[in-house]
Design goal:
With about 325 residues, the protein is of the alpha/beta class. It has one domain: Metallo-beta-lactamase, Chain A (4-Layer Sandwich). The protein is built from seven helices and 16 strands. The radius of gyration is 20 Å and the shape is globular. The protein starts with a strand and ends in a 5-residue tail after the last helix. About 40% of the residues are buried.
Length: about 325
């Protein structure tokens, strides 16, 4: 099921909950399945596999670059991915953020879709055009394009939601990449939400129409190399996304130690993926149930969104 969104406004419920907490003081009883979690596994460069035990998705994993400039998945593991062998069996969605070869390969995607007929593929028009002549997989390639910087499209299935955005690509190494179509993906499964930013430019215009900071995003995957590692870019992420956790990817293979140190300086509590098969398990912050216990206001526990904001302010202090 697709759902087209012009703009999200989820601030009103958060404000109401905050007023309630300040007025009467509450402890919200919480309830989550014991298995609620998301496993994030690094597949090289900017690629990840996300799994919650029931659903699996791939983002920027179906590439076949051999450039030593970027980290890579071993060829034998890539062959298992394309074949749909464990642990890559049962993938329901594969996504590419854009058509650069360290993120996407048409031949790799073609082989994967032919071997995994249950899987759907999502990518921007510049990616999909390279698959246009492949009749055998056209039913698996979703023809969706959100409005640039203002709209999103939501794909929902039992236990899985994918929200697709279209944002501006960054420029690097003297190259103008402004014409490159870059999709970003907000994936929710296992009670956890993760925003994969692809190669987005760290500008407010990419985020300001979506009010992501109020949406309790549990983790964000950032491209972190060269001049992308900066105080100004950190401030944009804190202000516009306010995630619970930072996952840093896309470090240069020949400068891993230097760039890892630079990332750690900015994001001391971040998870930094440097080697294929690095992984982290993300556990959700429990949502309040309907059971509410009243306490004096001075003892009130703050609602989920405020807890997360406080945690991120400790991790990513304002540097203005």
């Amino acid at each position: 099921m697709y759902k087209f969104n012009d703009r999200f406004d989820v601030s009103a419920p958060a404000r109401s909950l905050s007023r309630l907490a300040m007025t009467v003081g509450v402890i919200a009883a919480t309830a989550l399945p014991a298995s609620a979690q998301m496993q994030v596994t690094f597949t090289g460069n900017n690629g990840v596999m996300l799994s919650d035990g029931n659903n699996k998705v791939l983002i920027d994993s179906l590439q076949n670059h051999t450039n030593p400039f970027w980290t890579q998945l071993p060829q034998s593991d890539l062959q298992d991915m394309v074949a749909g062998n464990a642990p890559f069996d049962g993938v329901s969605y594969a996504m590419a953020t854009h058509n650069h070869p360290d993120h996407y390969s048409s031949n790799t995607v073609l082989g994967f879709l032919l071997n995994n007929p249950q899987a759907k593929f999502i990518g921007p028009p510049q990616v999909r055009s390279s698959l246009a002549g492949q009749a055998a997989i056209q039913a698996q390639v979703l023809d969706i394009t959100p409005v640039f910087q203002t709209g999103s499209i939501v794909i929902s299935e039992p236990g899985l939601e994918i929200e697709v955005f279209h944002m501006e690509h960054f420029d690097q190494f003297g190259n103008d990449f402004s014409s490159v179509q870059d999709f970003t993906y907000l994936v929710t499964m296992g009670g956890v939400s993760l925003l994969h930013l692809g190669d987005i430019d760290y500008i407010n215009e990419n985020f300001e129409n979506f009010d992501l900071a109020s949406r309790n995003i549990d983790a964000v995957i950032l491209p972190t190399f060269n001049t992308l590692i900066s105080e100004a870019n950190k401030a944009v992420i804190l202000d516009q996304v306010n995630p619970g956790h930072i996952i840093a990817t896309h470090l240069r293979a020949g400068l891993l130690a230097t760039e890892e140190a630079n990332v750690r300086t900015l994001y001391p509590d971040a998870t930094i993926f440097t080697t294929a098969w690095d992984s982290i398990t993300l556990n959700p912050v429990p949502e309040p149930s309907t059971a509410i216990l009243c306490l004096p206001a001075a003892m009130a526990m703050v609602v989920r969104g405020r807890r997360k904001e406080t945690r991120m302010k400790k991790q990513l202090p304002h540097t203005r």
